[in-house]
Design brief:
The complex is a heterotetramer, with two copies of chain A and two copies of chain B. By secondary structure, chain A is of the alpha/beta class. Helix content of chain A is about 35%, strand content about 20%. Chain A starts with a strand and ends in a 26-residue tail after the last helix. By secondary structure, chain B is α/β, with parallel strands linked by helices. In chain B, helix 1 packs across helix 2, helix 1 crosses helix 11 and helix 4 crosses helix 11. Chain B has a single domain, classed as Rossmann fold, CATH 3.40.50.970. In chain B, a hairpin with a 2-residue loop joins strand 5 and strand 6. Classes of the chains: A alpha/beta, B alpha/beta. Bound molecules: thiamine diphosphate (TPP) (2 copies) and magnesium ion (2 copies).
Chain lengths: ~350, ~325, ~325, ~350
């Protein structure tokens, strides 16, 4: 049975079902049992699952080590971070330890661990509450990295991540928590490593990462009005990354644009572009493009942040250039640019 | 100056403490009143209820002493002499803000006032204060460094690493922990062992440490004076834990007792121990300050705060080009 | 069994302690003898001189207790019952190694023996032991978790974060610090405050803690037995600091007194307190064990070690394809 | 006056001169004053500069914060890490704080900090002592990233880094410490952000990063024997990265191969390839290639490590393919593959 629920509710439901299905699953994170429940993603879980739903001290590094230790002996921890920026304190444990445990012990141990990290945006989140460093995790063998863009995938990928025997970094963009979608009630899995085509098209392939998939869909709509048929692929997983689906699409369309929530320079877009160039060079009509953040820390003032984040309009403009078409007018964005939806009034 | 003998500081000092606290309070109350207008578009962590710590400690510092803080830094910034207009403009995201609008409430700075910066990663600036103290030692300078942080910061590894280093090198750093019992909505009980006072952690590192009432501005100030004396004497770092309480929600302008993470009785008990009201009463009763003096001072503050908001509101937003400046400091010396 | 009353453990236990220590020593001496052949092509951190801690603690553990360690882990691995042949093969980089050759000396594991793994990032495995203890608590299991680490590990943030969490949840984790006075070539004095014993750090966290002679296997063992009893009773974490000394260079097979970071007198004094020699004397004198018994045992060990080296040397290297296996665990359950 | 000295000696000399020139410079790191002196790069400095040359506790995170704090008030710290892997503990301070300090305070503060990190290799360094994560740092605006490959650049880039008012990540490959080159005695600067052409060529551009520049030079030699003229560019800086020099070269040669010491997937090679494709698409004769580490943690056994690291032969093979030429025999590598030179006998 499917209903329309929010992305945050989908995460909560997936967690609930994982906790119910397997006594080895536990959930830990700052504020997990508190009245706000990590943007609503953990509400009610403490009441239903007791000791396996825990708050924690502000000790991101050790708590990651604790989760690894528990995972080694068969628990399946889910660790949440209200911002990716805070999780940077735990990089040593994630990258030196969790990612390599299985390999460096010759397969004798594994770390079935899910680490949720929220990528902040808007309302003055600024330099230390908004980083989108998926490129880092995608660079590390031994980790898996998923970035669901829809409520459906939020649930399906979380269940798949919890059931995976490896450390999975699960990145959720703050502007997706309130978005809604059809989500089946029963547990289901979205396979890690599979991209999804959200829209078919002929002229260009738009690859969206996380929230930028939403902007890519908006752009495709606008482009359709100008007679341009854009295919939209929601990447969903960065490691492993579904090169085949992207390549098959680009071989048909001859054009590629990657829209990423992270920085362009050294970002994951470069990996996608490189693999496409390596494997579909002969089919490329024009050089692929990458859209993402400029080489600048996140400014806090809304007057600056509005210029910082690329939007559908930037995708449209880039596509028009790639197709040698003149510039088109985008409908002006309505309302403030630093909130996910009009209902959001701050402060976090 | 201290006729009754009951209070520990001079009337002048007591008045200065009052001024600082009342000013912080008024600024933050004005934020509360106007946050709903949605023109301060950044997270704000108000320190209403905790003003005595900022006031009492900063009053003990000299011009070349420097401080750092975390997410809840308005009080520290103001108490250290940070520019109010620049702070309000920063919160409004304006070019005239102390960080040019790039930082917001969580990234205040006023170098001229010795406020070296605040950043909101819990524990993240403690090591920086230690670094400032190391620099002073290497250069033979006399200023001391101060880090303000909350009760959650003592759960971070960097806190302990910093204390160990500061103790090893006997650095002139004052570590000020404002224990307001909560980290966001999480009580101490789910984060730290029962029966282990925070101050014990500092003592474990061999650091001189004390735990005091953080809602008594004079007590805070006297403890800070002692600490500063010991720091200037080269006796190594000092840690002070102050018990206090945040009245409003963790982040934002509202009261949040409705959401149920803290008991109404607890809240009421702390309200009744308002650091400003009790200190005001002491000024009148013990220090024999005239009501009129306080009234004038309060009016001055109210006006200054109104002016600062006007300044902030009327200031221009940074132009788009500003986004791309100051990414790197001057390419070389 | 303990006729003289002087020693704290039975002759049987004392003999077992001797066997463990002597075995560790012989294994590492053999590494020393043959490292120059350049067939053990990985860093090795020998624990010669420190064997009593590994032996005394592990002797107090049961089958379902589990341990983790750091870079200097050979002794812990062997004392906990780790497979010697698999360890030597690992050091030789062979497919028959306990980690299939992928880990080397710094990444030993023997799940069957309750040796959950060692990794060489200082402090990095302490939190894992706490996690193992958390898992036991959540599952209602009785085994305890043990972390072995050095005196530098107490300088890491993760050490303190781990202790805070373990204390908060009263987890059954035993924290064993082998204080051998040095981190690589750096003495304690440049790393930690003078006059602040390491054990004070654990006490600061409200954790039961003691500091003992780490070169007295019986004393170590008795302390560990007490700790284990308290852990099994659910009384929360226990921290034990053991004073001991590494004889050989930080990393590698050689003596390194020539490079001058430690005083010859210090070295000599510790040599004269060899945990194995003193324990052997005690076996003969106090426990009245016959010299012949020890001789037989030593011969057994020597043979076992020879065999293990032969096994390691004769084992095959992993084939090239092995490089690309075990990057990820089974794709799903 | 120039002499031939080692890369390690060049680092030591640069540090010595910086300490002598400016009383605000200080050097801190585990073992800095010890008898081994961080692979010989800090020998004698304690004796000459006293209190400004310091050991430290194993507290990588706080010591980075300490350095930032000192830097804010005008010191110019140099922080060393004997392995990049250890520095992962300090990522929060480096990335959230140091990289953003200047920007987020509107230019009111700056962090003139140099962080040296050694990238290990060989003799069983294994999974936790050998990571080459330059791609991470190169992804972070506010940081600068340099990777000298020669003794000359080791000195010149270190002095430039110390004199730079920004945080500079200075990555030194363990196999370079013992290499020798002409190094002037007097202080000099190598500008951060400038690549260097080490060899001119017509048929292909080989871009080398750090130690892989050495392998690229070897490959170019072998290729010359087969009539192929390879241009070799030593990238030297990754942030900022000298796209112009690389593009100008590729516009001439029409072919690009990047040889990196780090992992290929999500690595910095993807950035170079993407920029070349974006800006020299029309001049590319064949798709660019990337050579680097496979998607595998570092194995410890020499029997596995020998297959793990790409060498000159792999570059040659790739180039032959790119030029549609048959495979060539490489001279077999002589001696063991897990040591930088025959003099190295372990253990570190
Ligand atoms: C490393 C890190 N983890 C988590 C957070 C989220 N966070 C912001 S404020 C806060 C609570 C801090 O509590 P405390 O130190 O007691 O200060 P208070 O808010 O009570 O003044 C937390 C957990 C953060 N900013 N940094
Ligand atoms: C986080 C980290 N920093 C630095 C190192 C380098 N290192 C390896 S062993 C060691 C010394 C550890 O000393 P101690 O904990 O006292 O153990 P010991 O070697 O004396 O047994 C250091 C600093 C490391 N492995 N991990
Ligand atoms: Mg608090
Ligand atoms: Mg030691």
């Amino acid at each position: 049975m499917s209903r329309v629920i929010t992305y945050a509710e989908a995460i909560c439901e997936a967690t609930d079902q994982c906790l119910a299905a397997d006594a080895n699953v536990y959930l830990m994170g700052l504020g997990v049992p508190d009245p706000k429940g990590v943007f609503g993603t953990t509400l009610g879980l403490k009441e239903r699952h007791g000791a396996r739903v825990m708050d924690m001290p502000t000790s991101e590094n050790a708590m990651t080590g604790v989760a690894i230790g528990a995972a080694i002996v068969g628990m399946r921890p889910i660790l949440t971070h209200q911002r990716l920026d805070f999780a940077l304190l735990s990089i040593e444990q994630l990258v030196n330890q969790a990612a390599k445990f299985h390999y460096m012990f010759g397969g004798e141990a594994s770390v079935p661990l899910v680490v949720r990290m929220v990528i902040g945006r808007g309302w003055g989140q600024g330099p230390q509450h908004s980083q989108s460093l998926q490129a880092w995790f995608a660079h590390v063998p031994g980790l898996k990295v998923v970035m669901p863009a829809t409520a459906y995938d939020a649930k399906g990928l979380l269940i798949a991540a919890v059931e995976d025997d490896n450390p999975v970094i699960y990145l959720e963009h703050r502007w997706l928590h309130g978005t809604k979608g059809e989500v089946p009630e029963e547990p289901y899995r979205v396979p890690i490593g599979e991209a999804r085509r959200l829209r078919e098209g002929e002229d260009i392939t738009l690859v969206g990462i996380s929230y930028m998939t939403i902007e890519a869909m908006r752009a495709a709509e606008v482009l359709a009005g100008h007679g341009i048929s854009a295919e939209v692929i929601d990447l969903r997983s960065l490691r492993p990354f579904d090169a085949e689906t992207v390549i098959a699409s680009v071989r048909r369309t001859g054009r590629l644009l990657v829209a990423d929530t992270g920085g362009v320079t050294g970002g994951f877009g470069g990996e996608i572009v490189s693999q496409i160039v390596e494997r579909a060079f002969d089919r490329l009509i024009c050089p692929p493009r990458r859209i993402g953040l400029p080489d600048i820390p996140t400014p806090t003032s809304p007057a600056l942040a509005r210029h910082y984040y690329p939007r559908a309009g930037d995708i449209v403009t880039a596509v028009m250039e790639m197709l040698d078409r003149g510039p088109v007018a985008m409908p002006p964005a309505d309302g403030p640019l630093d909130v996910p939806d009009p209902g959001f009034t701050g402060p976090f | 100056m201290n006729p009754s003998g009951v209070t520990a500081v001079s009337a002048e000092t007591a008045l200065a403490l009052y001024r600082t606290m009342r000013r912080i309070r008024r600024v933050e109350e004005a934020i509360v009143e106007r946050y709903g207008e949605q023109r301060m578009r950044c997270p704000v962590h108000l320190c209403i209820g905790q003003e005595a710590v900022a006031a009492g400690v900063c009053q003990a510092l000299e011009g070349d002493d420097q401080i750092v803080s975390g997410h809840r830094s308005h009080g520290h910034y103001l108490a250290k002499g940070g520019d109010l207009k620049a702070m309000m403009a920063e919160i409004y995201g304006k070019a005239s803000g102390c960080s040019g609008g790039k930082g917001g409430s969580m990234h205040l700075i006023d170098r001229a006032a010795g406020f070296l910066g605040a950043t909101p990663i819990v524990g993240g600036t403690i090591a920086m204060a230690v670094g400032v103290a190391l620099a002073a030692k290497l250069r033979g300078e006399t200023g001391i460094a101060v880090a303000f942080f909350g009760d959650a910061a003592v759960e971070t590894g960097i806190f302990h690493e910093s204390l160990n280093f500061a103790a090893t090198h006997r650095l002139a750093v004052l570590l000020v922990c404002e224990n307001n019992l909560y980290s966001v909505y999480s009580p101490l009980s789910v984060r730290q062992p029962e029966g282990r006072p925070i101050v014990a952690l500092a003592r474990g590192h061999g650091i001189t440490a004390d735990a005091l009432d953080g809602n008594d501005a004079e007590a805070v100030h006297v403890a800070a004076l002692d600490a500063v004396e010991s720091l200037r004497a080269g006796d190594g770092p000092v840690f002070l834990e102050f018990a206090t309480y945040r009245w409003r929600e963790h982040c934002g302008p509202n009261l949040d007792n409705d959401i149920g993470y803290r008991a109404p009785e607890e809240f009421e008990a702390w309200l009744s121990r308002c650091p400003i009201a009790t200190h005001r009463a002491r000024l009148l009763n013990d220090h024999r300050v005239e009501e009129g003096v306080l009234g004038d001072l309060e009016e001055d503050i109210d006006k200054e705060v109104r002016d600062a908001f006007t300044f902030a509101e009327e200031s221009a937003f940074p132009p788009a080009e500003e986004m791309s400046t100051e990414i790197y400091a001057s390419e070389s010396r």
